[in-house]
Amino acid sequence: MRRLLTSIASFVSWHRRAVGAILAAGAVLLLATALRTPTPTTAVVVTASDLPAGHTLTSADLTVGQLPPGTVPADAVLSPSDFEGRTTAVPLSAGTILQPGLLGGDHSTAEGSAVVPILVADEGLRAMLRPGDTVSLVAPGPEGLIVVASGARVVALPEAQQAGSQVALASGRQSELILVEVPEAEAGEVASLGQAGEMSVVLGSL
């Protein structure tokens, strides 16, 4: 065995340049093979720029990125068209992987509830609201303020109403709407008072 090892050491010593070249060629071959092997990825929808809460998504706001399958959230959005027209529930930074929990604006409601647009003229108050917030809606009554709806849920804060919408035409105001989810039994009164600007918002449930 000692003689064999001595012979190998002697061979390497005398032919070290050739051995080095062979090892380098092998390394290059392995690297080239690795580069030729495509890494599997999954397409996900990400935001193309910074977006504020309440922003209505358009195709210009979305782009498709490629991520390794193991890093993609289970509920990640895979097609931009699935969520165009939805609104952001929170501010999103550019490159954020789009997930349903980050969005509002689908206007889906629980059974027995309805979504109603109401006017909120106070810009400071609007800035404090976020989709998902619980609010109460009050209005003047014969003997003081009355609670029209308690525990209403803010669904969305549209950036602006489309020109020609019924509410915009009726109110003359384009960007003071919020959408709230209330029980169906209260939806008519909330709509009547809320769209006439005769109702106030209280944060929380009364």
UniProtKB/TrEMBL annotation:
Superkingdom per UniProt: Bacteria
All copies of the SAF domain together span: 42-104
Classification via Pfam families:
SAF
Instruction: Cite the Gene3D superfamilies for this sequence.
Output: Antifreeze-like/N-acetylneuraminic acid synthase C-terminal domain
* This protein's name: SAF domain-containing protein
**CDD domains, from UniProt?**
SAF_CpaB_FlgA_like
